[in-house]
């Protein structure tokens, strides 16, 4: 049997069992049985054992910890240890070391652009003004200086092609979802008086968490047995403390907040237990043109979805239909929205290729095969 081609996926703040890198990109090329797969990333609370994929943890502290400065050097050490043929970097801060490593080892370099980082930093405004401008400068410098060394880009969102017009060598591989083999068919909400809502994933102010909680509490005045679960990675300690202080004692509100990324399997289990998925994103320039992964995943699992009103998302939601677009700031309309939701026959059209990962996985397999000379 020919020797497998070594490949590295590398990030800093994404966990080694990140949904996109492990369960989508990693599993897709593992199917070919041609590659020796290595995923480098953030330490999880419980690292899973995955057949034929090596998970390597190089960072485990808070994102502002000084030890983060040494992560690129640990990454370089792994490059020399594994001697990959292809390196796929998913975060800008590893690009300079990946460029140096390419010069020394001669591998093909791919930049998986999961976020428009400089735009995020500018729009989300979670950093002080001077720190924010410095961070934007660092991102742009790392991406610009590394561009000649990058053999190919992967865009996780279609809109990145417009936002980064100077980049021509790219393939769009969207964050779509794996559709379960068993589908429910069309249905209406059953737990009308004891409905269970959930907000999951990254928990930050710009994702509209506070607005959604207030919307839920207003609805709860009419539905006292309703529940809201909030589960996910809350990177801002001050915001986590605010949520715990203000809402932990509220009846029907359950908080599962973590300072580090939670396993994707754990979050999916919580979603499966809920009736309605809330996606209350703010319509910031860094958000409004993207399609949230949670929207694809919610449709794939046939969850009822309430999402911020946005033409890009409304077109997707209305198709099946998967739910409704709402204004979470209009809390006085919460019960009216709920009554409308009860009248909808959801998923008259089943989840299809428009949300399915398999087509994206084939594109990724073909790209890796071309770069590996297969």
From TrEMBL:
Keyword Transport included in the entry's annotation: no
Domain Glycosyl transferase family residue range list: 196-328
Record-linked Gene3D superfamilies: Glycogen Phosphorylase B
MF terms in GO: glycosyltransferase activity
One Pfam family this sequence matches: Glycos_transf_1
InterPro entries according to UniProt: Glyco_trans_1 (IPR001296)
Keywords carried by this UniProt record: Transferase
UniProt protein name: Glycosyltransferase
